[in-house]
Amino acid sequence: MIDPNITAQIIEILLSKIEAKDQELGRLLIHDEFEDLDERIVIWAIRENIRDLKETTITDFHEIVDIGDMEIKVTYSPRNFFEDVLIGKNVPYWQVATVMRLLNNSDIIYDPKGKLENWREGAKYVEWQAEVIELKRKTSQMLLERMNNRILDDMLVDGYIWLIKAAEEAICIPLMIKNAFGIGTASLLLDTLHNAEINLYDFFRNLIRIHEFTPEKLENARLELELLADRLYQQNIKTDREMWILAAFVSINESERRLKQSLKIKTSDINSTVASRLFETAVGELWQAYFLVAQNPRSAVKLDPWVVASFWNWFGSPEIDEKWIKSKENYIRDIISIQ
Which CATH architecture has domain 4-123? Predict the structure, then answer.
């Protein structure tokens, strides 16, 4: 856990560096369920004069305050990233989920015009639009069709990957109907399902084979994917795959961080349930990373064969055959039909 006095010092220093030319509306200090185990400070800064999200790691604190191995991450966001969600504009579902998570799990640390406080009040009235939920249904159905096409082509592993992604999309539907917003990634989905009334947690946990991973297996899988992703990135700079692979590195790093936290807890007196949840989050982030690295939009089958082979090496099981996949497909179609 980070000393609150250190956090206060860092925030004060960061705020002192804001200049009028930055046109900054405010800042949020982000919290998560496991932050007491973390050596990381996460801040979002909303500015008028930028167009896209930009995450940066602050490294120039060591001469001012001793932060040790602490990470300080600041994401700079345009104003409309938040406001488009709050006014009900048609935006990607992950944007809605992200904005709601940030506004509901943060402290406002800078708000000179009261704008962020107004946003937080407005967030109380945000609901998932019926059109967005319907798009989830259609996306899940499309992914199941893609899965079936790969099965017909004797590409079982590709089919398995599309099955998992179809399940992710489908599981969001009953959660969105209940106006849950923690659905942006596989790890967030696991956390939300863990606390939800609907009984889909075990289904999704089994689908990504969490029970078959050990810490050693997870670490080795992550290292293999990291090397593969780095090589593929060098080969695909300025192509359709570049941004997919860059996004995968975020999940790779998050998987490593959650695994370390899980192992640290096992050697302490903290409840072992927390360690288990962190471990499954690490597996969820690894799955997310594999899916992102595998994306190859220009390919007819959409997935990179080298990444698919690596994925099967770690996530595969003799249990997974066409019959197993079809049984899961039927269950997913039942989820899709939930109203």
Answer: 2-Layer Sandwich (3.30)
